[in-house]
Design a protein that fits this description.
heterodimer; A: 652 residues; Rossmann fold; Elongation Factor Tu (Ef-tu), domain 3; 6-stranded antiparallel beta barrel; 27 strands; B: 334 residues; alpha/beta; 6-stranded mixed β-sheet; 31% helix
């Protein structure tokens, strides 16, 4: 390690003294990420050193440590706290560092860059306003750099700084800098961040950290510290959706019953009408007490005590919201999950889920996919191992009140706890809204990606309004009950033929009918979806919702979808009242499929032109017991229709 | 609703600029505790600490607040009062007493207990020595600092404590930089730095098995300067030891130690009278004074801003070896 240089140039104002007592100082939390050799710890050491935030005894300890080991002083040792790390020469956990300039107090979450420590990176990033991704100028954009940028984006850190380090080792070449920027750009277009800033630096020599580099006159941008001091924070705070998870009940005497908690988003004022979740009851805020005294209103970030007008049963884990923009209580949702434990995720196993102040039992009912650690392409997965990230389906034993993580970090995040070891095993980011982007103006209730199941609508005040003309009225006028027939099975099994014949049969009886099939929806409503596991699930979700609209309109709705995933079909089933949804499995022998092959798909699959085809190299999950099954090798389509018609008329 | 502290603060204002009450001194010139005069970062740190104290109240059955008489634990008591009022804070205070105290510390402690109405538990290192649980060190370097760990763990166990709130800050020392807000301790009271629970967003996992406990550090993100600025902006009374005063001290390897019956001196360590103040307050044997003329909070803040050594730089206990703090924490130190 080279000897440190102190570039304390006199021609430039020093940004800050050791600790500064500025007025109006605010707080920036940032995280640093880089590979082991990118010089991350040296960068932090340099920031502290050049901003005069390092104390003599710390420097002395460094020198002592260096001389005990017969080495030169190493700035990185400031941040490498634990003895084991010094032995291994890498940081192994999140360490927090502090420094201040007259403008800001900074909290650095220093996280290791090693790929097996994704969990620490995610931990550090979960509370950051900004992330610094370090790139070694000699090596260019490595997998590691992309991983860190990807995780920052996933965790919704709004600001990204790409610090291209070790510029001294590439002769401070502007061409090399531009080359790396060009290399990073195509990847960065996929990231969901507000701003990306590239800065050429040398942490070792001190170029463009606190002091402007004299060796890189071609760089006109800000130094790193200047950028950190001036970047805007709090841009992703949600000021619109009032969320107040009850943390603790304060009851000093019979006359005072207050609900302590933090306003996680939005605002609340004295006299505001609020909805209590999960009960759905309405009440009014009669007072807001804060640590500094009574307030007329409280905004996001403030810890306060609310009192409400009525004597209502409310305890830790409940939530106060406003009637408009209320979350939908749900027991199922989809999430991005980062697994943080050496024991793999076990789907179906009961974990404890902490969401805001609420803890409930939960299972991961399904793992959809995981991100490949190098390409970030999603790939099918059955489970998640340590440091793996994927999309999962979560089911809870009691309702939670979630928001999409992109809209609201506090109410969109959760952790999973292993009930045996009590270890925190996973971090989750809730996905309610596939299309939702930060600042989307869509009212929240319509963004509910996967929920909306009837079972979750426990609270009549907070879900959507009932239909203007009720289905019962429409059914009366139509003269028959509405019903949904869901035909599932692989391509070529005979679904479409049966569906058409069946619709004709009902139509001829003078009934209102509608036929929905997969190909048809994929041309229109679902035209934006592909064939990833996630898109297939969404395809079925939308088909179910479309069926529900026709159902509510009073029709006999016949749906023909491959719908290979059992849980996807079960979710659709839950949209309808008992006895109004009939699932039918349509199947035949594989030989018959290849023989029929109405769309030529099996031929293409055999020729390797389709990678994944349900019924060929991708399974169709059969329904459970009690579901009607039609073998089209054994019965004709007319006979099949007779069977289904009888079942429905008989049951209807 | 008027709290004891409000009363104290009003008295401070009346007696401005220097108010003395049983060893408590406060010299403040700012006129209001209103948020407008306070840096936003102090408000953010206060909100964070209050959130964590409320989490402790909600998640644990028998939490205590470790009270040393030092400024950090005084700030903790102040925050606890703010976090729960109009209710009293739901923590007992616990003081681990080495027996080697500055008399001002004990006077201040007893007064604070009276003002807040809190219940105080005292664990005495002397008792641990008397009943053979701990062995006294001998010689001029003898300290009861390490023995405190035994007394602390015994006292926690005796009172079935499941969570001990501490005023530890991450800026104090390298090993503390990795400490979580909620720090799990196994059945032996030990910390395993390599197997800490990840701490994400504001979700604090306080689940534990019987016999285990937690240490929780609401001031984790505060620096020494933040603490002083907060004391000034909230006008919190603190012991007089923090302000410059005349005292008989002697110099040992660059640090000024108080002349006291509790410390044996090497030959050549002659006590002299100096104007000093303490940056931290702990056991007399290992708390070094600094030469200082700072007699108001403003002067202290100016002094801290210009300081070139960390506050623990005067703590004798950290200097023994490079990993001294980490070793102590592993076995259950504060």
């Amino acid at each position: 390690m080279d000897r440190i240089e102190n570039k304390d140039s006199q021609d430039e104002a020093v940004a800050g003294s050791a600790i500064t007592t500025g007025a109006g100082m605010d707080l920036l939390r940032f995280t640093t990420a880089g590979s082991v050799d990118d010089g991350k710890s040296t960068l932090i050491g340099r920031l502290l050193f050049d901003s005069k935030s390092m104390f003599d005894d710390q420097l002395e300890a460094l020198e002592l440590s260096a001389s005990n080991r017969g080495e030169e002083v190493n700035l990185a040792l400031v941040t490498d706290g634990l003895r084991a790390e010094r032995e291994q020469g890498i940081t192994i956990d999140v360490a927090y560092r502090y420094f201040a300039t007259p403008r800001r107090k900074f909290i650095i979450a220093d996280t290791p860059g090693h790929e097996q420590y994704t969990r620490n990176m995610v931990t550090g990033a979960s509370s950051a306003d900004l992330a610094i991704v370090l790139i070694d100028a000699r090596k260019g954009v490595l997998t590691q750099s992309r991983r860190h940028a990807f995780l920052s984006s996933l965790l919704q850190i709004p600001q990204l700084v790409v610090a291209i380090n070790k510029m001294d080792l590439v002769n401070y070449s502007g061409d090399r800098f531009n080359e790396i920027v060009r290399e990073f750009r195509p990847f960065s277009e996929k990231l969901d961040v507000d701003e990306i800033t590239f800065i050429p630096i040398s942490a070792l020599k001190g170029d463009n950290i606190v002091h402007r580099s004299k060796s890189m006159p071609w760089y006109r941008g800000d130094t790193l510290l200047h950028h950190l001091e001036h970047v805007q924070v709090g841009t992703r705070r949600n000021d619109r959706d009032f969320r107040f998870p009850v943390q603790y009940v304060i009851r000093p005497d019979q006359d005072y019953r207050g609900f302590a908690g933090r306003v996680e988003s939005g605002m609340v004022a004295e006299g505001d009408s609020v909805v209590l979740l999960p009960s759905g009851q309405l009440s009014t805020v009669i007072s807001i007490d804060s640590p500094g005294g009574p307030l007329a209103r409280a905004v996001a970030g403030q810890s306060v005590i609310l009192r409400i007008a009525d004597e209502m049963d409310l305890s830790r884990g409940d939530m106060l919201v406003k009637e408009d923009r209320a979350p939908v209580p749900t027991t199922r949702f989809r999430s991005v999950l980062c697994w943080m434990n050496s024991a793999d995720l076990v789907p179906g196993r009961v974990y404890q889920l902490m969401h805001t102040t609420r803890t409930v039992s939960a299972v991961i009912s399904r793992v959809h996919d995981r991100y490949d650690a190098n390409t970030y392409a999603s790939e099918p997965a059955e489970t998640l191992a340590l440091n793996e990230i994927g999309h999962v389906e979560v089911e809870t034993a009691a309702p939670v009140f979630p928001d999409d993580y992109k809209r609201n970090q506090a109410t969109g995040s959760f952790i999973l706890i292993d009930p045996d070891t009590n270890a925190t095993v996973a971090a989750g980011m809730i996905r309610m809204d596939r299309l939702g982007s930060p600042g989307s103006d869509q009212p929240h209730a319509f963004n509910t990606g996967i929920n909306g199941e009837t079972e979750t609508l426990r609270s009549p005040r907070v879900h959507w309004q009932p239909w203007n003309i009720r289905r019962e009225m429409r059914e009366k006028r139509n003269g028959h009950p509405a019903h949904v027939v869901w035909l599932t099975g692989v391509s070529g099994a005979g679904k479409t033929t049966i569906a058409k014949t069946l619709e004709n049969r009902f139509w001829e009886q003078g009934m209102q009918t509608m036929l929905l099939d997969g190909d048809q929806l994929r041309h229109g409503l679902n035209g934006d979806l592909g064939f990833t596991p996630e898109d297939r699930t969404e395809n079925i979700r939308r088909a179910g919702e479309a069926a529900r609209l026709f159902f509510e309109q009073g029709a006999i709705v016949i749906c023909a979808f491959v719908s290979p995933i059992r849980s996807d079909r079960e979710r659709v089933r839950r949209l309808f009242p008992d006895g109004r949804f009939t699932e039918v499995l349509v199947h035949c022998s594989p030989e018959t499929l290849h023989e029929r092959d109405p769309k030529g798909l099996y031929r293409k699959a055999r020729e390797g032109r389709i990678r994944s085809l349900t019924g060929y190299n991708s399974p169709h999950e059969p329904p459970g017991d009690g579901v009607m099954s039609i073998d089209t090798n054994a019965v004709s389509s007319e006979e099949a229709v007779d069977l289904i018609y009888q079942r429905i008329i008989g049951s209807g | 609703m008027t709290t004891a502290l409000h009363t104290a603060n009003r008295q401070i204002q009346q007696n401005h600029p220097a108010f003395i009450l049983n060893g408590a001194v406060s010299g403040i010139s700012s006129k209001s505790t209103g948020k407008s005069l306070r840096d936003p970062h102090l408000t953010q740190l206060e909100e964070e600490a209050i959130y964590i104290m409320r989490e402790v109240a909600a998640q644990f059955e028998r939490p205590v607040l470790l009270f040393s008489g030092g400024k950090d634990s005084i700030v903790m008591v102040h925050l606890a009062m703010k976090a729960f009022r109009p209710a009293p804070f739901p923590f007992m205070l616990m003081h681990i007493d080495t027996g080697h105290n500055f008399p001002e510390t004990i006077r201040f402690r007893d007064d604070l207990v009276r003002r807040t109405g809190a219940r105080l538990i005292v664990g005495r290192v002397q008792e641990s020595i008397d009943n053979g649980r701990a062995g006294e060190e001998i010689g001029p370097e003898a300290s009861r600092n390490a023995l405190q760990t035994v007394t602390l763990l015994d006292t926690l166990k005796e009172h079935n404590v499941d969570c001990a709130l501490g005023g530890g800050r991450r800026d104090e020392e390298k090993a503390r930089a990795k400490e979580r807000f909620f720090s799990h301790r196994n059945i032996f009271g030990q910390w395993d730095p390599k197997n800490q629970r990840p701490e994400l967003w504001s979700l604090f996992n306080g689940r534990k098995h019987p016999g285990e406990h937690f240490r929780v550090f609401p001031l984790s993100n505060w620096t020494e300067m933040d603490v002083w600025q907060y004391i000034a902006s909230e006008r919190i009374p603190i012991p007089s030891l923090y302000f410059a005063h005349r005292r008989r001290v002697f110099n040992r390897r660059g640090a000024w130690l108080a002349d006291s019956d509790f410390i044996a001196r090497y030959s050549g360590e002659e006590p002299v009278e100096k104007t000093v103040r303490f940056r931290t307050i702990g056991d007399v044997t290992c708390t070094g004074a600094v030469l200082s003329q700072a007699s108001t909070l403003e002067e202290i803040i100016a002094e801290v801003a210009a300081a070139r050594v960390t506050e623990r730089g005067n703590r004798h206990d950290d200097k023994r070896s490079e990993a001294a703090m980490e070793d102590r924490k592993r076995v259950g130190y504060f």
